[in-house]
Design goal:
Layout lengths: L2 H9 L17 H4 L4 H4 L6 H15 L3 E3 L13 E3 L7 E4 L19 H16 L4 E7 L1 H9 L1 H10 L1 H22 L6 E6 L4 H4 L1 H21 L4 E5 L9 H8 L5 E3 L6 H8 L4 E6 L4 H4 L2 H15 L4 E5 L9 H15 L2
Parallel strand pairs: 1-4, 4-5, 5-6, 6-7, 7-8, 8-9
Antiparallel strand pairs: 2-3
Helix pairs in contact: 4-5, 6-7, 6-8, 7-8, 8-10, 11-12, 14-15
């Protein structure tokens, strides 16, 4: 099997020859080529340099699947402000819909600006240059997008004080997600990945997680399946404990093909709910173990996940995205541990 075949087969629970590795590498590839962040996110998005960085990181690490561009959650198309520090990570510094009336001035298709055009072109280049590599489309989740548009603190206040506004902006966000997915194009990727750190029951509470996140995830999943693509959902929060089993079950019932758990979840607790229902993604904590090491700890923690999940419908990732500044040697240690485990 090619890496692409190996990854897709495991996502769809059809078995594979070895454990696929997917690093949701959003900006780490910039470090491999010593590329300034603002060199990609300049006046025009540099799609060629973006693709070069994505493929350089894959050539260094040998993972099976990549995000097809150096990524940002910029919402400049709606009037938001994003900063691009030369040697840092893009970050939002101004929410476009802090005044909710501004939402009425925009259409979700406004997301198709010069930035998204450049990111789409990067996907196309990666697909063309590496046809045997799995390409994953990274899309912000319903609440994640709503929080970026409104400001996450304001959005959370809306859920308590103005729930109709909170629901309206998540509906708008879902339409933004659909427009983005359709524009980047199913021909340029193998899987859609919903990155949803703010779609988090620990933060929203179970009731609002179902209302604002899962309601719209059902819609998004149907839409993505209509494009004949599988979908992976990555909310943050606790799902592995017995008192949260119903939340994980409800997440799976939206029709997702894969569920990625974040940090502070026990793999066995996730497996009990997902087995024979959807594939599993997750692994080493990116913010502690993978960042800080040492290598023995990285190998040990990787093996902990593989001991429980290695023979299941499992794709090894880490707990969240990878961004520049993370020691590449540490990531390589994690991947080497996977390959060593598969050879046993």
């Amino acid at each position: 099997m090619t890496p692409r075949e190996n990854f897709v087969s495991r996502i769809l629970m059809r078995g594979s020859e070895r454990t696929p590795v997917f690093l949701r590498d959003l900006t780490l590839g910039l470090d491999v080529n010593n590329t300034p962040t603002d060199a990609v996110f300049g006046k025009e998005y540099d799609s060629r340099e973006s693709a070069r960085c994505v493929l350089a990181l894959q050539n260094t690490l040998g993972q099976d699947a990549v995000v097809g561009c150096i990524h940002t959650y910029s919402l400049e198309a709606f009037g938001g402000i994003t900063k691009y520090p030369s040697d840092g990570i893009p970050y939002l510094s101004g929410a476009p819909f802090d005044d909710i009336t501004k939402m009425n001035e925009h259409d979700p298709d406004d997301i198709r600006d010069r930035l998204l055009i450049g990111m789409r072109d990067s996907y196309r280049i990666v697909r063309k240059k590496a046809p045997d590599l799995a390409v994953v489309m990274n899309i912000s989740g319903p609440v994640n997008t709503a929080g970026n548009l409104r400001g996450i603190e304001t959005f959370l206040m809306d859920t308590m004080i103005n729930p109709d506004i909170a629901y309206a902006i998540t509906e708008f966000s879902t339409r933004v997600m659909k427009s983005t997915i359709e524009f980047i194009g199913p021909e340029n990727c193998d899987t859609v990945y919903i990155a949803a750190a703010s779609d988090n029951p620990d933060m929203l509470g179970p009731k609002d997680f179902r209302r604002y996140s899962l309601t719209h995830m059902r819609d998004i999943t149907r839409f993505v399946h209509g494009l004949e693509l599988p979908l992976v959902f990555h909310p943050h929060g606790t799902f592995s404990t017995s008192d949260r089993a119903d939340l994980l079950a409800d997440s799976i019932e939206t029709g997702i093909d894969g569920f990625q758990f974040a940090e502070n979840n026990e793999p066995l607790g996730i497996l009990k709910q997902t087995k024979d229902k959807c594939s599993i993604l997750g692994g080493v904590d990116a913010f502690t173990t993978l960042l800080m090491g040492p290598e023995k700890r990285i190998t040990r923690d990787t093996n902990i996940f593989l001991d429980v999940l290695g023979k299941e419908d499992y794709v090894l990732t880490c707990s969240c995205s990878l961004n520049r500044g993370l020691p590449i040697r540490n990531v390589k240690t994690m991947i080497e541990a996977v390959r060593d485990y598969d050879r046993r």
